[in-house]
Amino acid sequence: MKNKKIFLGIMLTFFINTAFSDSLKIENPNEFNIKIYYSDNLVLNSNNKFINDERHPNKNEKEIRVIVDNGNILKKTLMSSADRNSNSKGCNYSMIITKNNGWKVDNVISESSCSPSENHYDPAKESITYTIINKSPNPVYPAFSVNKSNSFVADSISDFIQPNESRKYDIKDKFWRSIGIKNGKKVQTAIFEPFEQEYIKCSQLELVDKSKNYIFHEDGKCTSIK
C-alpha cells in the first residue's frame, strides 16, 4: 500500500509538472546565434541548427523572448504559461528562422491565451539553384537523397555531366521534380561515379534554403564551393 501511494504521488507530480510545461522548438538552418529569455532571465544561448527548449516558467516569467543575431534578424516576444490554471497545457511553439526566406512561429496544441501563430516564411521567395561542376576526367551522374541520408537517386533524365562541364538544378528541373525536391525540403548531394560504381558524398543532409555549388575534383573528392 505504501509503495502504491508513493507511485501515485510520483505520477501526480509528473502530471502537474507536465501541465505547466512550455516548449519552444526552433529550426535554425543558417546557424544564427539565438538567445531565449524567460522575461529577463537568459535560459538558452545557441547556434545549433535545431534548438529544443522545455521548462516550467515561474509566475514572474510571463514572456518568452527570442533574440536572433542580437536582434539584427528577429526580436520576437511570445507569451509563456506563467499564472495559468492547473489544467493548462502550457504554451508550445515551433519556429523556423532563415536568412533569405523569412520566419514563422506556430502555436502547437497550446492554450488560446498563448501567442497566436504568425507566418512570414516564404521558401519560394528566392530562386535557389544547385550547381554541380565536374573537374574529373570521367563523365559522372549528379545524385540526390531526399529527406533522409545516403538514399541516393542518380539523375537518369539529364544523364552524365561530361568532364569540365557543369549543370544547374532548381525546383523547375524535371529530375528534381520527379524525386520531390523543392524549397524547404532536406537534401543530400552526391556524385555517382559509374566507373567505380559508388556514390561520392558532396554534403550532409541539409535544408534547400539557399543556392549551393559543388565541385567534383580530379582526385575523386566532392566539395562545396562559394
Q: How would you sum up this structure, described in words?
A:
This protein has 226 residues and is mostly beta strands. The protein has 2 domains: 2-121, Immunoglobulin-like (Sandwich); 130-225, Immunoglobulin-like. Helices cover 10% and strands 41% of the residues. The protein has helices at 2-19, 174-178, and strands spanning 22-27, 34-38, 41-46, 50-55, 63-68, 74-79, 92-97, 102-107, 118-121, 130-134, 141-146, 153-154, 165-169, 186-193, 198-201, 206-207, 212-216, 222-225. It starts with a helix and ends with a strand.
Summarize the structure.
With 226 residues, this protein is mainly β. 10% of the residues lie in helices and 41% in strands. The chain has two domains: 2-121, Immunoglobulin-like, CATH 2.60.40; 130-225, Immunoglobulin-like.
Salient structural properties:
226 residues, mainly beta, Immunoglobulin-like, elongated, disordered N terminus
- Tell me the strand order in the biggest sheet: 4-1-7-8-9
CATH topology of the largest domain, by name, is Immunoglobulin-like
Runs in which pLDDT lies below 50 for 5 or more consecutive residues are 1-19
Largest sheet: 5 strands, mixed
Question: What series of H and E elements makes up the topology?
Answer: HEEEEEEEEEEEEEHEEEEE
Distance between the amino and carboxyl termini: 68 Å
Query: Number of DSSP strands?
Result: 18
Give the overall pLDDT as a whole number.
86
Structural class: mainly beta
Overall domain count: 2
Query: Can you count the helices?
Result: 2
> Which of globular, elongated, flat, extended, rod-shaped describes the shape?
elongated
Percentage of residues in helical conformation: 10-25%
Q: Strand portion, in percent?
A: 35-45%
Give the name of the CATH architecture of the largest domain.
Sandwich
Round the Cα radius of gyration to an integer and report it: 23 Å
Q: Return the CATH class of the largest domain.
A: Mainly Beta
